[in-house]
Amino acid sequence: MKDTIRSTVQEHLNEIFEITKYLYENPEIGNEEVKACEALSTSFEKHGFQVERGFCGIPTAFKAVFDSGKPGPVIAYCAEYDALPEVGHGCGHDLIATSALLAAIALAKELPETGGKVIVYGTPAEETAGAKVEMAAKNAFAEASVVMMAHPSPVSETSGTSMCLLPKMFRYYGKAAHASACPEAGINALDAVIQLFNGVNAIRQHMPKDVQFHGIISNGGAAANVVPDFAEAQFYVRAAKKATAEMAMEKLLKIAEGASLMTGARLEVCKFEADYYDLCTNQALCKVFVENQKAAGDTVNPAGDGSGSLDLGNVSHQAPCVHGWFGFGDASLILHSRDFADRTATEEGRQLLQRAALTMAQTGYDVIVNPELLKEIRLEFEAL
């Protein structure tokens, strides 16, 4: 049966790579991926999938489903297709989208015999707002037995971890006054922000080593001779695990309240970006994924340090996940560069598409036909 999957991938490779090149030639930034969403949705429909456009109320999101009509696991793939300003597809999302498309087509051909269902979630704006965060908040991935992604990279690596990232905006409202003539009549909102930073610096030593605080003063007043009546700071809290990040955020919120009490400035706390949870790679799923990746002709290195954050992390708290890295075999390549974007539309990109789609389709097949594997995957996930 895996030989059939390989044949199907090969049969449709050129057709789907044309979509890769179309996305490369028509890059669209987050939540503006109108052409990409339409091209992908149309292709899914051509291959017998039921497509829900505007999924979860997000205009450029979709959900493509091929249901065998028989009981069985639900294999899900995530497609990203937003580009970067000026750089285009410097993160390889054109290949992420089409590898999910090609993998789903290949696996769907086997489902009438094996049973089960395949879903592809079209997830916009990974580089900005992170549509997966909103989808996960609406339990969109709860029906998936497993969720997979294939991300282009300079070199291939196993799925690893990412850091949890929690953003908060702190706005302080004071009272304006002449800074020389009557400062006693004012309430200095900037002083509150400064005390916030001082408090954060004081607790850094007493936090777990993986905790990070990143902060900027995004508004600190308009003129030096006026007591600032408004000041604003933006902070990220990062940590290796969601629970640790939440603990650190509670500390930060108390410091922010303390700065308000010290200065008399009124505090308002709000979000300015979405929470990105840590990626929990399912190791049982990852082991089979890597075996298939190697069988597809890839050389796979150990996972990197996982110092960044990504919205698939939120998905991994709702369903077992793997986020494979598929390399061009060139360690000098730099992600988020024009050179990287250009590489996606070359013969090297076509070969990467083939390896990634084959790996994901064959891993999906393994999950469907091996109940013991799925049980192991599920037990690991439930132990998180």
Explained architecture:
This protein has 2 domains: 2-162 and 277-382, Aminopeptidase, CATH 3.40.630; 164-270, Alpha-Beta Plaits (2-Layer Sandwich). Strands 1-2-4-3-5-10 form a 6-stranded mixed β-sheet. A 4-stranded antiparallel β-sheet has the order 7-8-6-9, covered by helices on one side. It has helices at residues 2-25, 34-46, 93-108, 111-114, 131-137, 189-203, 242-263, 283-295, 312-316, 338-344, 347-369, 371-382, and strands spanning 50-53, 62-67, 74-79, 117-122, 146-153, 164-173, 212-219, 230-239, 266-270, 321-327. With 384 residues, it is of the alpha/beta class.
Properties at a glance:
384 residues, single chain, 42% helix, Alpha-Beta Plaits, alpha/beta, 6-stranded mixed sheet, Aminopeptidase, 4-stranded antiparallel sheet, 12 helices, 2 domains
Present the secondary structure layout.
Layout: H1 2-25, H2 34-46, E1 50-53, E2 62-67, E3 74-79, H3 93-108, H4 111-114, E4 117-122, H5 131-137, E5 146-153, E6 164-173, H6 189-203, E7 212-219, E8 230-239, H7 242-263, E9 266-270, H8 283-295, H9 312-316, E10 321-327, H10 338-344, H11 347-369, H12 371-382
Parallel strand pairs: 3-4, 3-5, 5-10
Antiparallel strand pairs: 1-2, 2-4, 6-8, 6-9, 7-8
Helix pairs in contact: 1-3, 1-11, 3-11, 6-7, 8-11
Helix count from the secondary structure assignment: 12
Q: How can the largest sheet be summarized?
A: 6 strands, mixed
Estimated helix fraction:
40-55%
Distance between the termini: 33 Å
Strand order of the largest sheet: 1-2-4-3-5-10
CATH class of the largest domain: Alpha Beta
As a percent range, the share of strand residues is 15-25%
Radius of gyration: 24 Å
CATH superfamily of the largest domain: Zn peptidases
Q: How many β-strand runs?
A: 10
Order of helices and strands: HHEEEHHEHEEHEEHEHHEHHH
CATH architecture of the largest domain: 3-Layer(aba) Sandwich
Q: Which regions are unreliable across 5 or more consecutive residues at pLDDT < 50?
A: none
The total tally of domains equals 2
Give the integer mean of the pLDDT values. 96
Looking at the structure, the CATH topology of the largest domain is Aminopeptidase
Shape: elongated
Q: Structural class, judged by helices and strands?
A: alpha/beta
